Amino acid sequence: MNRRHFLTTSAAAAASLAPQAPAQSARPNIVYILADDLGYGDLRCYNDSSAVPTPNYDRVAREGVRFTDCHSPSSVCTPTRYGILTGRYCWRSRLKSGVLQGYHRALIEPGRATVPSMLKSAGYHTAGVGKWHLGFGSTEPVDYSKPFDISPNSHGFDYYYGIPASLDFEPYCYVENNRAVDPPTAFTPGLNVPRGVFWRQGKVAPSFVFEDVLPTLAKKATTYIAERAREPQRPFFLYLPLTGPHTPWLPTRKFEGKSAAGIYGDFVAMVDDVIGQVTEALRQHGLENNTLLILTSDNGAHWTPEDRARYPHRANAWWRGQKADIHDAGHRIPFLARWPGRIAPGTVSGQLTCLTDLFATAAEINGIALKENEAEDSFSFLSAATAAPAKSPARASIVHHSAQGMFALRRSEWKLAESLGSGGFTEPQKESPTPNGPTGQLYNLMADPAESDNLFLRNPTKVAELTAELNAIRTKGRSRA
Questions:
Q1: What whole-number distance in Å separates Cα of residue 190 and Cα of residue 188?
Q2: What's the rounded Cα separation, in Å, for the pair 271 and 255?
Q3: Backbone angles phi, psi at 318, to 5 degrees
Q4: Rounded mean pLDDT of the chain?
Q5: Which among 330, 416, 456 has a CA at the least distance from the CA of 74?
Q6: 269-298 pLDDT, tens per residue?
Q7: Which residues of 12-48 are buried (b: 16+ CB within 10 A; e: fewer)?
Q8: CB-based contact 237:30 (threshold 8 Å)
Q9: Backbone angles phi, psi at 307, to 5 degrees
Q10: Is the pTM of this model over 0.90?
Q11: Alpha carbon distance 80, 73 (integer Å)
């Protein structure tokens, strides 16, 4: 496996900045596409040996910046989505582990600033299209037969269209703004065959077709872009959280056999095609030169040891573990950004980055000062992407969080996990210390990216140092100074 991308930077690429675009690019449109369970190794721009063709992702990498050390704030989806929109670690909210279900009440606190509310106040039109998974309303179970008193519109979105949660969680229906388009009044017995073609039993809208969801979201997104092109003087923010390649893996006939990684790889190829549809819409409507396009994933891929044995594909590249784990495969993710005239083509950055950093970055682009009580865990990555002088401190450390609520801290090449085990899907999930054995995990990722040599007992000074920093971040309630 080619490890040339680990913790690298490309000074030469950064030095070859393209000519500056017109002044209007100071307030760019922002399109943020969040894949669901897309792994670091799925994309060929990160993994030369990927068994999946990803030409559209790879094109954006060539035309912009590829971050090699970016992480989701959690190794599962709901808390990551909370972190993206609020700039705040989700474990600071009421959700301390796991994810929401489709009938849970709204997670984002009333009145809390979000990326769309900030940008809306700065004059942006804001839209969300895709998987929400952050709850609706103030009571539960959510009643999908009535309008919601809390919806994405309550958190700064002018428009929202999508599904309530993951495509394998009931209820199965579309939501537009504050109500179900077609209420879930029917029932599906669920499905669980073959591997990856899975959804739980439960309520479903009579008109709902699982295979149509990803194409429907792509169409909604490109239609929105076309509509915004008619008002070019007003910038827009499009948050596009896709439903794939999370289960159910449902590649349409056009993508069957496109990869050497089974239907999962074919579905990743279908997700890549959605990227192509969005980038083509930006080009067709003359918007690409004034748009910051960001492509990433909510956590690592759910690519099991059995999947790795069956296919010549490493969805999480060489990183240890899988989705939900505290190990790097759970949360190290692809992160690409393109902004013609501001981001040099072919740039590679090894800057430590977290998905909570969108808030501070969007604020810096628009000259907005962050308030004391907002985006507590957000750092701007604008300087790392554009090679422009930094206006604020870069992120120096990050708190990792697993599905089961295990904490870890990463600083420079060091990573400390408070407990033993994966904290997620990989066995052993929890591991009791042996007499005189380590109670946690310490790895030097530069020397040991596979997290195979636990240095916890051999470097007590580093353990104490990182433990103190982790405790301080949790205690003071913020990462920003």
A1: 5
A2: 10
A3: -95, 5
A4: 94
A5: 330
A6: 999 999 999 999 999 999 999 999 999 999
A7: ebbeebeeeeeeebebbbbbbbbbbbbbbbbbbbbbe
A8: yes
A9: -65, -40
A10: yes
A11: 5
C-alpha gyration radius of the chain? 21
Residue 462: CB partners within 8 Å, gap ≥ 6? 414, 416, 442, 455
Q: In what order do the strands lie in the sheet with 407-411?
A: 397-401, 407-411, 414-417, 441-444
Question: Please, what are the domains in the chain?
Answer: 11-395 (3.40.720.10), 401-476 (3.30.1120.10)
In sequence order, the β-bridge partners of residue 239 are: 32, 128
Question: Are the C-beta atoms of 407 and 75 separated by less than 8 Å?
Answer: no
| Buried residues in 103-119 as b, exposed as e (16+ CB within 10 A) | bbbbbbeeebbbbbbbb
Length of the chain: 481
Q: Is 23 a residue whose pLDDT tops 70? A: no
